[in-house]
Fold:
Amino acid sequence: MLSLGAEMTQEIKSEKLDAMGTASIPKIVMQFSIPSIISMVVESLYNIVDRYFVGQGVGSIGIGGITICFPIALFIMAMSMIIGVGGNTLFAIRLGEKKYQQAAIILNNSFVLLIIMAVCTFTLGQIFMEPLLRLFGASDQLLPVASSYMRIILFGAIFQTIVPGMNHFIRSMGHPKTAMSRVMIACFSNIVLDWLFIMKFRWGIEGAAWATIISQAIGGLAVMQFFVKKTTPIKINRRFMKLKAPYVRKIFILGLPPSIMQISNSLLNAIMAWSLTTYGLKSLEPIVQNGITMNGGDQAISAFGVLNSVVSVIFMPLMGFIMGSQPIIGYNFGAKLYNRVRGTLKFTFIYAMAFILVTWSLVLIFTPTFVAPFVPNDREIQDLTCWAMHIFLTCMPLVPVGMVAGNFFQGTGKAGKSMFLNACRQIIILIPFLLIMPHFFDLKGVFMAQPISDTVTAVIAIVMMTHELKKMPK
Structure:
């Protein structure tokens, strides 16, 4: 076995790590969650800013093209989450157990796996680009736009995996603000480059793609700088990069449940795009936008792209808050401080529900205000998006129940239960209703499937959590 040495072990025994097992729960959760919230909001701005500038500079057809590419982008994010979240869960538990040597191997193995994932994603994406976009519902009008955007985006796959993947480890080493700053560097670079390439240079959809991958490269360099600093207790080190089968297996087992959300989101968005195209053609009349005829399917996809951007504004802060509690749950579970695990869970749930109720009310009341900036010159798409959003978000206050429960199972290493719960909302329940409801309600049925899934998933989550908490030692 390799040894980290007494010096490194002493460095790791820092006040920041000890605080996860001793500090006030509200204080330590907010200390971790606020940077995580900011990180998730900033990270979501990649897609939101792209769609905003594309809507301003290209129009609804550009938003439709980006939306068609969204399943592929989600799949890349899912590959990052499998390694980043899975490795970080194991990493946090080992830190709580004071097994620092194993933590170093886990971090470095995760880094190598992220690179392997990125190379595979780039290769397969370039080979199967056009068939995938056609499968996702790209029309003859949307296909050239979507292809131009996605071929460039894939060149930045390695940075799209490293930035979010390795940021999890920065947070678990007690540096949530550092993790936040790395994401902010990339995001603000993206905003500036989007404005420059789309609005000033008039590069269109290609400008949005180049802005994204250049900004992610800047963020990737900033992330890696943390892991080579002398003051970082556990660094990127060639000695620990050789893949160890037991750790790789455990990383995938723990990382798959939370990434099911993203993998299923990719599948869901593909089915959603197909459904929008099919039932949009049946329900909507063609319109002309910037000299281009948009059929009903193209309109429905563009509306869903705007809807997705607005929903991201709500869910990314919520996800950031809940994810911020995960290292605390993992650390205290590993240290057998079960009362602190319960306290962290309760605090997270109460504040998540309060947040979602406030934001849900604001979005339903001021829907046109949220929608208009994305398609300022297209009243038809604005009206269609507002109508769809009121249906889509009907049961949104129930969503935190499943999210908090899934995060708890993830943090305590119960991979199977977390995987099942995450799969319920996006695969087991939603997809069947997404395929059934449109047969009875046409395009409206496409948007009705989500609130039904949210309700059923919340009930299942309550039952599972109640059973698990009864089993946990006092």
